[in-house]
Amino acid sequence: MIQGFAEKVKGTYKVGAVNCGRSVLEAKFCEDKGADLNDLPLFAMIADGEISLFQDGGQIPSPKQLHDFAVAKTPFDMVKNINHPTQIGDRLLSKKEKTKFLGAVLLLTDKYETSAMYASLAYRHRSEFAFGESRAKNLAMAKEFGVKKYPTLIALKSNEGGDGISKTVQYSGPVKADDIGRWLDNLRGEFGGGRADKQKKRQ
Fold it and tell me: What is the spatial distance between Cα 129 and Cα 102, in angstroms, rounded to a whole number?
């Protein structure tokens, strides 16, 4: 069941397993995370250093229940809603932010809610890029970037003053987390990757 779930959510969530009964070390790790060794298996989600335990009521959850649980614990707040081109500067490219991003990633979509995949990408690349989303075929945003089909993913690099866009790069690959992740990794070099590489080593 876990293998099937891991394959289904590949690229969105990382799925792992710990054998709490294999050694004293593993048993201590599980207990430290809140596991009752007499009531296993136990499922949990870790995001931003915090662990949330799945309350199963003594039942083995279905893949759908695990997926719904993971979605509920996903940090969607890392994706900023962009309703108009005038909001891009302050919400995505501002130099006032404590974290100095290499650039921003903007998704223009016909959907009304942020996908778990996009939120996951925002979380994984949170030290390098600010993430935004324009939903529901926003006409003003589509006109600004010449978008005629959805979804369209665009990377933005701010100018030196931080009050405008100096470069845009549109993604043209498959709409899959692993492929988009590799594209973002490549953009680190294109947008000034030396600093981003140092940040990744410190994480």
Answer: 6
Compute the C-alpha angle 180/181/184, nearest 5°. Answer: 90
DSSP secondary structure letters along 34-96: T--TTS----EEEETTEEEE---TTSPPPHHHHHHHHHHTS-GGGEEE--SGGGHIIIII-TT
Contact predicate 52/72, CB 8 Å? no
Residue 28 CB neighbour total at 10 angstroms: 11
Q: 82 Cβ partners below 8 Å, 6+ apart?
A: 88, 91, 92, 106, 132, 133, 134, 141
pLDDT at 81 over 90: yes
Segment 114-142 shows an average pLDDT of 94
Q: Where exactly are the structural domains of the chain?
A: 2-72, 76-202
**Distance (Å, whole) CA 35 – CA 79:** 32
Whether the CB-CB separation of 142 and 108 falls below 8 Å is answered with: yes
Cβ burial, residue 156 (10 Å; 0-12/13-18/19+): buried
pLDDT surpassing 70 at residue 195: no
Fold of 76-202: Glutaredoxin (3.40.30)
